Backbone:
């Protein structure tokens, strides 16, 4: 009889290392989904840190644990590491649910800094977390068995390869979009340092940035053109180069140079994007930008009586609404209004509707404005065309722009139509604003 630990007849079972799992396509896909979500979250941390450090530390912890879990699952693929990966993916998803759909983090929306270029970057992180959770759970339930046949391995890779490529592309795109908010100078609330990057408004606790460009300081107060980027109210940012400018189709670099050469100051802003922020958030931000310029005209050396606005695509729609949609302004700088002296809307839709639209445009409208036709009508400049509007330049077409121009002319508003160039836009503003 064998004696173990002083007790006869007891045999200690031999210990063995945890059974290793294969690094098959499902495990690899789950790992890269977890990595994509963690890296995307980490990319937005510098911008989030500038707003509130506590949320940044929470998100940083979630990202760090997710990275460790993904590396462990790929480097040492066992049921334990697969369960660890599933747990961290579930935790990341829980943080998203608590902060975005449920809105329980009440100080502000901590995902907003990640959504400044693509308005659904946070949803990308949540989707990757769901894929990682599902993949890790399926892998953890599998039995360890001998190496499968070559045909079976090849078939598995062929079936899951498109999903793996989609996961990789989504993770890279999410990381680039989230990281774009962290590049460049932080917006400053100090206005005594001359033209630069400023915080023009703080919407729901999130600072919104404005870049001001001009040829040289000094001289009389300059007229201002506020530029609003396109992107379907879902994509883009204020920057003149980089991913945000590419997604918004921005042509603002050459237009800025043409305007500053004529003596204008040029202001370019970020505004909140859908679906992270629902309508009328972008319009409220644009109005706040105009009021900011008027309230701080002396510090910025600009003329508050000569503020115009231009936009491309849906940025042009916002510009048109600044010209025709009258109403009481709410928010900061209540001593000022958001009226402008002239509007240039380039390739801008004057009305939102789904009939006759291609699938991509339909998806963009639904994402930006929701499904309520009343919201589409409220976001359409055509609804408000009437007397009292400033001079308009409606260039390069746009949905219902001809009808919009006809209604404005019928109300006695000066309207210029047709193909435009940077020079003709600058000529228009020089004539309308002076």
Residues:
């Amino acid at each position: 009889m064998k004696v173990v630990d002083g007790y006869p007849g007891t045999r200690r079972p031999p210990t063995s290392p945890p059974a290793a799992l294969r690094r098959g396509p499902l495990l690899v896909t789950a790992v890269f989904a977890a990595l994509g979500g963690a890296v995307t979250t980490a990319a937005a941390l510098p911008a989030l840190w500038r707003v509130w450090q506590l949320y940044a530390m929470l998100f940083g912890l979630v990202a760090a644990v997710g990275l460790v879990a993904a590396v462990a699952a790929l480097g040492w693929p066992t049921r334990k590491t697969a369960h660890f990966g599933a747990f961290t993916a579930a935790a990341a998803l829980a943080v998203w649910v608590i902060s975005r759909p449920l809105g329980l983090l009440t100080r502000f929306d901590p995902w907003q800094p990640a959504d400044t270029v693509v308005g659904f970057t946070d949803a990308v992180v949540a989707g990757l977390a769901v894929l990682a959770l599902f993949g890790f759970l399926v892998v953890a339930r599998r039995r360890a068995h001998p190496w499968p046949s070559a045909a079976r391995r090849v078939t598995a890779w062929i079936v899951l390869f498109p999903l793996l490529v989609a996961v990789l592309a989504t993770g890279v795109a999410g990381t680039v979009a989230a990281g774009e908010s962290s590049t460049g100078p932080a917006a400053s609330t100090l206005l005594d340092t001359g033209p630069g990057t400023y915080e023009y408004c703080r919407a729901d606790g999130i600072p919104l940035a404005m870049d001001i460009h001009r040829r040289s300081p000094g001289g009389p107060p300059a007229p201002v053109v506020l530029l609003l980027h396109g992107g379907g109210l879902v994509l883009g940012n204020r920057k003149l180069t980089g991913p945000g400018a590419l997604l918004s189709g921005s042509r603002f670099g050459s237009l800025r140079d043409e305007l500053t050469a004529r003596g204008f100051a040029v202001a370019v802003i970020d505004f909140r994007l859908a679906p992270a922020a629902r309508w009328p958030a972008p319009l409220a931000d644009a109005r706040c930008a105009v009021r900011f310029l008027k309230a701080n005209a002396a510090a910025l050396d600009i003329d508050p009586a000569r503020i115009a606005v231009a936009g491309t695509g849906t940025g042009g729609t916002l510009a048109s609404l600044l010209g025709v949609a009258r109403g009481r302004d709410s928010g900061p700088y209540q001593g000022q209004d958001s009226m402008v002296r002239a509007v240039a809307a380039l390739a801008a839709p004057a009305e939102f509707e789904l009939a006759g639209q291609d699938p991509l445009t339909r998806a963009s409208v639904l994402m930006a404005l929701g499904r309520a036709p009343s919201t589409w009508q409220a976001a359409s400049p055509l609804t408000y065309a009437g007397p009292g509007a400033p001079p308009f330049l409606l260039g390069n077409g746009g949905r219902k722009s001809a009808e919009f121009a006809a209604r404005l002319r019928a109300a006695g508003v000066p309207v210029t139509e047709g193909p435009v160039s940077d020079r003709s836009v600058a000529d228009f503003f020089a004539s309308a604003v002076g």
Summary: The mean pLDDT is 89. The first helix runs from residue 25 to 43. The beta strands are 3-4, 7-8, 197-203, 206-213, 222-228, 265-269, 302-312, 343-346, 392-395, 415-418. The radius of gyration is 27 Å.
